[in-house]
Amino acid sequence: MSALARHALAELLGTAFLVAAVVGSGIAATRLSPGEPGLQLLESSLATGAVLVALIIAFQPVSASFNPVVTLVERALGRIGGTDAAVLVAAQVAGGAAGAVVANLMFGLDAVALSARTRDGGGVLLGEAVATFGLVLVVFGALRSARAETVAYAVGGYIVAAYWFTSSTSFANPAVTLARTLSDSFAGIAPASVAAFVLAQLAGGAAAALAVRLLHPLPVPAPTPQEAP
What we know:
This protein is an all-alpha fold. The protein has a single domain (3-219), classed as Glycerol uptake facilitator protein, CATH 1.20.1080.10. The chain has helices spanning 3-32, 37-59, 68-76, 82-106, 122-143, 151-165, 174-180, 191-215. Helix 1 (3-32) runs antiparallel to helix 2 (37-59) and helix 1 (3-32) packs parallel to helix 4. The model is unreliable at 222-229 (pLDDT under 50). This is MIP/aquaporin family protein.
């Protein structure tokens, strides 16, 4: 198997498990804590942060972005080529969709049930841009630190916090956003809300890429298997 195929498989599997955790924990939270949205958010945020730590540690030796924005910033910083970026983004989107379907089936729901949960408004979209901006800074800042292996804990901790301090509950990931349209549950997002969410995420990622260049002006080294975010 070629290196790119291995990277794509890692991105597909990792994103699938990430979305399964996001959607599955949302469904479980609504069943375990009906009528308590704050507790539901706490349960889902802890599950998502924990699974991110585990998945990044497990897949980091191959590839562990699980996020098209992170992959595109890698491309902008010259860490990967254009073809590689396109293949990895496609794998992330496919993996996210598979994860949502599996989560629905695990909880006895239809494999695909388009979400009716509208998420819109200027404040919510600003929250998505802020969440994505911060995530990219955390990922690439952690990778440039003296202990790059701590990126898993940095990302997991940031996402748990961003569930709470952003008005959008921090999707911060186009592949996850698209996948969450497939589940009409606590974690879902209506298809009509997706375009604005993704644009906000891309804007936040682009601003963060510029910030990373300013904060870390030295050339970014070519990725090694142990450095994949």
